[in-house]
Amino acid sequence: MSPLLFTTLTLLFLSCVNARLTLDFYKDTCPQFSQIIRDTVTAKQISSPTTGPATLRLFLHDCLLPNGCDASILLSSTRLGPPAERDADINLSLPGDAFDLVVRAKTALELACPNTVSCADILSVATRDLLTMLGGPYYPVFLGRRDGRSSLASAVPRYLPTPSMPIPEILRLFTQRGFSVEEFVALSGAHTVGFSHCSQFISNVSSSSSYNPRFAQGLLKACADYHNNPTLSVFNDVMTPNKFDNVYFQNLPKGLGVLKSDHALYSDPVTRPFVQSFATDQDAFFRVFATAMQKLSLLGVQTGRKGEIRRRCDQIN
């Protein structure tokens, strides 16, 4: 199948999904939905500033898998079944703040509107609200998702990018899900907030000449004890780490990227033009990022009689 035909079919599918989802899905069944999410998000982000980037990463790791945005990343493994997605190696570093946020929101919503709001909708809206709190773009979130009933760690490695993957390989993961190169680069801009563990990049710092020399020295110093303390980490954007903006893209030509994939994003001739464009035009970055996030939030959603409304987000009913 040609990339153009695949993209066309994907867009047709997403338009059909939109027909089943609505922006006011909980208007009658849970009118407090939006306010409860906002209150929970605000309180959690103020108390734990890492919540925003943590939730964004959790959302991405949920939606990029073949089963799409079904909150399967939230399911815990059981003694009788195979390991769940959250126990895949790449997901073991997902920060607990994001899981805690969803638990808090779900608890409040179950008290107000029992058996009504899906964990998948909670994660989708909470991610959007946190992005706007950090200064990022607003985009409408269609609602009515239902939660998936399966979660397999074995499916994860083939569909989620890692910092050491070459750009063509990471790009393939996104284009096969219907994203353009420009949208992929915009989504990579999520690294403008959050942090990376030293173990994810430190070996590349020592072996690559793409890092700014002073920055490389700073990274090596900050991560000097990472063997004894695996929790050591650094901000992905050293200039404005807590603000969602386009400074991440401005950093890359200066050698101020943290991960190997950050540097490759600028050095690869396919993605570099979009890095340069977003570095000079934050409005363009925000516009493409918002479109890509909305598209991401609609991948593989289950509606109607498919899936379920979990009573607890970490286990099926």
TrEMBL record:
Position of the signal peptide: 1-19
Domain Plant heme peroxidase family profile per the UniProt entry, residue ranges: 20-317
PROSITE patterns according to UniProt: PEROXIDASE_4
Catalytic activity line of the entry: 2 a phenolic donor + H2O2 = 2 a phenolic radical donor + 2 H2O
Protein's UniProt keywords contain Transport: no
Class of this enzyme: oxidoreductase
Protein name: Peroxidase
Organism: Flemingia macrophylla
